[in-house]
Design a protein that fits this description.
Elements: H1 5-8, H2 21-33, E1 39-43, H3 50-61, E2 75-79, H4 86-95, E3 106-111, H5 118-129, E4 135-141, H6 149-152, E5 156-159, H7 165-179, H8 185-195, H9 199-210, H10 221-228, H11 233-244, H12 248-260, H13 265-278, H14 287-296, H15 302-314, H16 332-343, H17 369-379, H18 393-403, H19 405-411, E6 415-419, E7 422-426, H20 430-436, H21 439-451, E8 458-462, H22 471-480
Parallel strand pairs: 1-4, 1-5, 2-3, 3-4, 7-8
Antiparallel strand pairs: 6-7
Length: about 500
């Protein structure tokens, strides 16, 4: 019977361990200096070398050659998942007092130590605190958070990292060369990605895939995608392209095609997330999509959730017309005063120079002094000017799209209304209102309005949809308890 690749290529010495130099270097120096701790704790994700290093370390401490198939009476491995009771630990405490048979140290390797019961931990604590001189404990776990702090504090802790993509590809390439497996580079990288930081998972997947091809056949990316039920990379790229171009029919067609091919929506989502992450620097506008994709896997109906996430971006937006209050007619002298105030602001509202009162070409009229003084004082107030008559909402939204993607993702769903010098933004719901009321967002909103010619108006946010413009629609909305007005093109 052939041996599994992950067992055949298991590390035999510290220098063979892949991607954990920050751990192996320290252990090597400690062993060379003869500094042996009484308890070690190895923590980190699965399949990254914790058990291998525990076994290597046990043999190095006793200066024994490491042979995976051989057993040694003074190196005892315990699986805490199946020996997690207090009686098991009490038995260990009794046996640990017995001197080693032939080695210098009796080494206990306790794998998945977090599975011990509370009573078992309490029983182990005293032994870890004051072990016999001849005893060394090596604890390994994927879940250090479940260990009591009293246990952790009595050990030397070494934290393992997930295997990097480059290290995984390099190691897999070594195995394929040794085994004579024909495989292309894209396939190697895909296997490493599917391993998700676990070298053992990547090796097991390679072992599985080599059974699908003959001696002279090559493992390709397409073969892996078919055998693992993945969406072809071209399918993922087309789906993202349809999302970017707001092509709703293409989005629906591609999702339907994926379902008909048996591609699980959660698998497709994970591929989309990985692709978006890879393209984030070149396409930062995809950041809102990445945030929404993370919610899909948590949905009870991920296929529907994925469709709504992608289609919402492509669906036509409701056309909310600006309700601009008409400016009242003012006399020529007041307009002249406003014009002068715009061209050059007075240094103080109380030191406004007297301006000549122009006469209309038609019948002369007398301007009351009080009205003129009020207009002059209002125009000279030292505050930001609003030019909401110049507001181009679409240009404003596009400016935020290009410069502030997070703001755009909220504002693009909102309606608005102009009330004099005040811009009222209807945020549809209180969640969006809270975002737009945030100080850091307000600064960027104000800057966007200024840059698109709307000046610096007062901004009010209301956490509801905009009110219907049509009186009949307004009456119906009042009866139905509210609603959002949508304009449908004929």
């Amino acid at each position: 019977m052939s041996k599994a690749l992950y067992r055949k290529y298991r590390s035999r010495k510290l220098s063979d361990v892949v991607g954990q130099n920050h751990v192996t270097d320290i252990l090597k120096r400690s062993l060379e200096a003869g500094r042996i701790a009484h308890a070690y704790l190895l923590t980190g994700p699965r399949g990254v070398g914790k058990t291998s290093i525990a076994r290597i370390l046990a043999h190095e401490i006793n200066k024994l050659p490491y042979d995976e198939d051989a057993t040694h009476l003074d190196i005892i491995e315990i699986d805490a998942a199946s020996n997690n009771g207090v009686e098991d630990v009490r038995d260990l405490r009794e046996k640990v007092q017995i001197a080693p048979v032939s080695a210098a140290k009796k080494v206990y390797i306790i794998d998945e130590v977090h599975m011990l019961s509370k009573a078992a931990f309490n029983a182990l604590l005293k032994t870890l605190e004051e072990p016999p001189e001849h005893a060394v404990f090596i604890l390994a776990t994927t879940d250090a958070d479940k260990l009591p702090a009293t246990i952790i504090s009595r050990t030397q802790r070494y934290t393992f990292r997930s295997i990097s993509l480059a290290d995984a590809v390099k190691h897999l390439s070594f195995i394929t060369n040794e085994e004579g497996i024909s495989i292309d580079n894209e396939a190697l990288e895909l296997i490493a990605r599917r391993g998700d930081g676990s070298l053992r998972d990547s090796e097991s997947l390679l072992d599985q895939l080599r059974g699908l091809v003959g001696e002279k056949e090559t493992i390709t990316r397409e073969l892996i995608e078919q055998s693992l039920g993945l969406a072809p990379s071209e399918h993922v790229e087309k789906l993202l392209a349809a999302y970017e171009s707001r092509n709703l029919p293409a989005i629906i067609s591609l999702i339907d095609k994926g379902e008909q091919s048996g591609i699980q929506p959660t698998v497709l989502v994970s591929q989309l997330i990985q692709t978006v992450r890879d393209q984030m620097v070149a396409k930062p506008q995809l950041l809102p999509l990445l945030d929404q994709l993370l919610d899909v896997s948590r949905s009870s109906q991920p296929n529907i959730k994925l469709l709504t996430v992608l289609a919402a971006h492509a669906a036509p937006k409701p056309k909310t017309a600006a309700l601009v209050s008409p400016m009242p007619e003012v006399s020529a002298p007041i307009k002249e005063l406003e014009k002068q105030a715009t061209v050059k602001k007075p240094e103080s509202p109380r030191q406004t120079a007297a301006l000549p009162t122009p006469r209309p070409q038609s019948t002369p009229s007398t301007i009351p002094t009080t009205k003129t003084d009020e207009a002059t004082e209002e125009a000279a107030k030292p505050r930001g000017e609003a030019h909401l008559q110049n507001l181009d909402w679409d240009a404003f939204i596009e400016y935020t799209h290009q410069n502030y993607v997070a703001i755009y993702s909220v504002l693009s769903k909102c309606g608005y209304e102009v009330k004099g010098d005040k811009l009222v933004i209807y945020t549809i719901n209180n969640f969006y209102k809270k975002k737009l009321d945030d100080a850091k967002y307000r600064i960027n909103i104000a800057k966007s309005l200024e840059e698109t010619g709307a000046g610096d108006p007062e901004i009010e946010t209301i956490g509801t949809p905009p009110p219907p413009k049509d009186s009949t629609a307004a009456a119906v909305a009042a009866i139905m308890g509210g609603g959002e007005e949508v304009t449908v093109d004929a």
